[in-house]
Amino acid sequence: PRIIGGTEARAGQFPFAAAIYVKTETATTFCGGALISSLWSKLLGFRAIIVEVHLGSNQLQGTDSNRVVLATDNLVIHPLYNRDTLENDIGLIMFRMTVTLTDYIKPTSFFPIADLQGGAPVTTFGWGQISDEQAGLVNNLQYVQLATLTNEECRLVFGTQITDTMVCVEGNYNEGTCRGDSGSPLIQNVGGGHTLIVGIASFISENGCESTDPSGFTRVFSYKEWISNVTGIL
Q1: Please, which residues have CB within 8 angstroms of residue 183's CB and are 6 or more apart in sequence?
Q2: 64 falls within a domain
Q3: Which CATH number covers residue 59?
Q4: Residue 2 lies in a domain
Q5: Cβ neighbours of 26 (radius 10 Å)
Q6: Total domains present in the chain
Q7: Are strands 17-23 and 50-55 parallel, antiparallel or unpaired?
Q8: Quick check: 234 pLDDT over 70?
Q9: Which of 4, 37, 95, 141 could pair with 58 in a Cys bridge, judged by C-beta atoms 3.0 to 4.6 Å apart?
Q10: Please, which pLDDT band fits residue 165 given cuts at 50, 70 and 90?
């Protein structure tokens, strides 16, 4: 997915934002992600040979002294990931060395201690398309404010594909994610400068990014135990 109806982020606004290039023998795929500790980043359920993670910069191209590029082959994809239904669409990246934290590179504060309710204000960001007609990534990170739906509301659009491990969001009109935003975090600000990762961009409507259909995310609360077991975090 990509960000529809978004605003350009300022430098350091989302210091946990990660631009991720997933490389296989035949192709390179782009997705978003989030830094969750100095050793770990989170993404969606790709299978790859090597992953290149860019941190510290809102720009994909051009010179930026704040940008740090890390490569690793240590990926952990959820063992029950289903590429057809997008269930368990979550993965983790372990870096080969500890990331040096700066004003522009910081992990998120912590993970949700309670499940998301419908109507919760949330934010997502990414480098994906900004319209159905304009293909390709954008150079500057975009963000948009959204609200969660109940899964019952989301099933009215997507049907039984929606499970309890997913969460849907929508904007006032057609705001949401698009192609190129997959893996981007859904965040909730809880005051005191603390940011929770509550979702990971997973799917969009077949009707297109600019439809008023909701955007679909993996519900992070459902995977707290798995993340903790893999990373030792929490």
Answers
A1: 20, 31, 32, 33, 42, 43, 44, 200, 201
A2: yes
A3: 2.40.10.10
A4: no
A5: 6
A6: 2
A7: antiparallel
A8: no
A9: 141
A10: very high
Interval 90-124: pLDDT, tens: 999 999 889 999 999 999 977 777 888 899 999 99
Same domain assignment for residues 103 and 135? no
Q: What are phi and psi of 180, to 5 degrees?
A: 105, -10
Q: Is residue 23 one of the residues assigned to a domain?
A: yes
Write out the residue range of the structural domain in which residue 24 sits. 17-107+224-231
Per the CB < 8 A criterion, the answer to whether 176 and 207 are in contact is: no
Question: pTM for the whole thing?
Answer: 0.88
Do 122 and 197 fall into the same domain?
A: yes
Structure tokens at 10: 């300022």
* pLDDT tens-digit series, residues 5-54: 688 999 999 999 999 998 888 888 889 999 998 887 776 555 557 889 99
